[in-house]
Amino acid sequence: MNARTSENASFVAWRAQAQQAVETALSNWVLPGAPAGLGDAMRYAVLDGGKRLRPLLVLATSEAVSGDAAAAMRAACSVELIHAYSLVHDDMPCMDNDVLRRGKPTVHVKFGEAQALLAGDALQALAFELLVPGDASVPLGLSVALCRLLALSAGADGMAGGQAVDLASVGKSLDLPSLEAMHRRKTGALLQASVMMGAATGQVSSEATAQLQRFGASLGLAFQVVDDILDVTADSAKLGKTAGKDAACDKPTFVSLMGLESAQQYADRALAEAHDALSQTGLVHRDVLHSLADWVGRRDC
C-alpha cells in the first residue's frame, strides 16, 4: 500500500467515525418530544441523511488547532441544524418547490407545509441553544463568538441573503462576479463559518485565521460549482434530490454561464486555491482538511 492510499484510508476512517459521532449527537439533541408531532418532523429533517460536510469541517478545523472538543461538537451540530432548516424552507412550494431531498420526500411533502415551516423555525432556534448550554460547559466568550459567526453566516449578509438573490435571479443572466457574490452568500458563507467556528474553539494566529477564511471561501465556491455540474451530469437517484432542477427553473448557474468544461476548470482552480490557503496557515495537523477539500471538489454526488 502506498502512502497516498494509506492517507486516503486514514481519512475514510476518520470521516466515518466523525459522521457517526455527529449523528449520535444530533439524535440526542433533536428530541422527538416536541408537541403535536413537531419533534418527528424535526428529526426527519435532520437525521439519517447528508454527508455532514459542515460538521466535519468544524471538527477537522478544531482538531487542527487543538481546540475544545466538546464545544466543537456543539458547534458542528449547530451548523448542521442551520443547514437542515434552510433545506426544509428552500424545498417548500413558495421557494424551490422540491419533492425529493436526501433520497426521501421533502419535509413539507411528508408532514405538510405548516409543520415544515415550524420544524425549520425550531431547528434554527435549537442551533443557537446548543451554543449556549445551561451547564456553562462552553465558556461564555466562546459561546458569544460561535453564535456571532453562525448568525452572520445565516442571515441577510449570508445564506438568507444569497437565497433571496437566487430567487430574484430566476430567468435572468448574471455575470461571473454577480454569480460568485450570490453563492458566496447562499452556499459559501455557512461553509466558511464551519471552518471559522472550528478555529474559534482553539488558539489561532491572525495570519492563520486569514488563511482559514480564504480556505473556507474558496471551498465554498468549489462546492457550488461542482453542485451545478452534478445537477447537469448526475441523476436524481445518485444525488438524492431532483436532478436538472436548475435548468428547469431557469436559474443562473456556473454551467449555464460558462459551459460544462469551463465550469469544471473553474472548480479545479477554486479547489487549488483552497489547498494553497490551507498550506499557508502553518498549521501542522491539516491533512484531514486537505482530504475534506478533495472530497468536496472531486465528489460525484
Explain what this protein looks like in three dimensions.
Belongs to the FPP/GGPP synthase family. InterPro entries: Isoprenoid_synthase_dom_sf, Polyprenyl_synt, Polyprenyl_synt_CS, Prenyl_diphosphate_synthase. Keywords: Isoprene biosynthesis, Magnesium, Metal-binding, Transferase. Its cofactor is Mg(2+). This is Farnesyl diphosphate synthase. The chain has 301 residues and is mostly helical. The chain has a single domain, classed as Farnesyl Diphosphate Synthase. It has 15 helices and 2 strands. The protein has a two-stranded antiparallel ribbon. Helix 7 runs antiparallel to helix 9. The chain starts with a helix and ends with a helix. The N terminus is likely disordered.
CATH superfamily: Farnesyl Diphosphate Synthase
Q: Unreliable stretches, pLDDT < 50, 5 or more residues?
A: 1-6
Gyration radius over CA: 19 Å
Based on CA inertia axes, which overall geometry fits? Answer: globular
Portion in beta strands: under 5%
At the fold tier of CATH, the topology name is Farnesyl Diphosphate Synthase
Question: TL;DR of this structure?
Answer:
The protein has 301 residues and is mostly helical. The protein has helices at 3-29, 38-46, 53-64, 69-90, 107-111, 113-130, 140-154, 159-168, 176-200, 206-233, 236-239, 245-248, 254-258, 260-280, 287-297; strands at 100-101, 104-105.
List keywords for this structure.
single chain; about 300 residues; mainly alpha; Farnesyl Diphosphate Synthase; two-stranded antiparallel ribbon; globular; disordered N terminus; dimethylallyltranstransferase activity; EC 2.5.1.1
